[in-house]
Amino acid sequence: MIMGESRYVLRPTFVDAMKRALESLNLNIVEMTDENATLDGGDVLFTGREFFVGLSKRTNQRGAEILADTFKDYAVSTVPVYDSLHLKSFCSMAGPNLIAIGSTEAAQKALKTMQQMSDHRYDKLTVPDDAAANCIYLNIPGKGHVLLHQAPEEYPESAKVFEKLKDHMLIPIANTEMEKVDGLLTCCSVFINKTSEL
């Protein structure tokens, strides 16, 4: 990636490689061609029922509209993001119907907005550290609920909160180096729910 003023510009080789990988899985690819639209994956939270899109320095209203046009079967609500890089800097899904959320005022304000915009009531798991709220939930056949979260040595108090999830297989991940360049766990991941023939 090449750093631009306040947004990342992906190198064509990376974009081309990702596009080829997705095409090999026979996935439908939608490209944003509107030069005024910005949409960062870190601002997109899919709950399994609906999308929340953070409006941040990296994502604008036009990007959210294109996402809504692409996924017409799901509600798409926008959430203003203040004092953070993007929406998933302080929240993510920690299980079915469970939102992990940081405890700062900005994180709690965003959660309140999400609750007001949704017809569904989500459970919440509040962790002391906003960055620790960025976790990865997987439902793996034969394994059940699996949660990748930041290691206890990085966020000990937040790790204690995750340990209360007794029905989850917890996998702590050391992420100190990536976090130095604003890379949280979901930033380093692409999830595809399809078997590859590669």
UniProtKB/TrEMBL annotation:
Q: What PANTHER family does the annotation carry?
A: DIMETHYLARGININE DIMETHYLAMINOHYDROLASE, N(G),N(G)-DIMETHYLARGININE DIMETHYLAMINOHYDROLASE 1
Q: What is this protein called?
A: Dimethylarginine dimethylaminohydrolase 1
Protein family membership: Belongs to the DDAH family.
Presence of keyword Nucleotide-binding = no
Q: Which GO terms describe its cellular component?
A: mitochondrion
Gene behind this chain? DDAH1
Molecular function (GO) terms listed? amino acid binding; dimethylargininase activity
Q: Which InterPro entries does UniProt cross-reference here?
A: DDAH-like
Q: Where is the active site?
A: H86, C187
Q: Does the keyword Hydrolase apply?
A: yes
Q: Which UniProt keywords apply?
A: Hydrolase
Return the Gene3D superfamilies for the record: L-arginine/glycine Amidinotransferase, Chain A
The Gene Ontology biological process terms listed for this entry are: citrulline metabolic process; L-arginine catabolic process; negative regulation of cell population proliferation; negative regulation of cellular response to hypoxia; negative regulation of vascular permeability; positive regulation of nitric oxide biosynthetic process; regulation of systemic arterial blood pressure
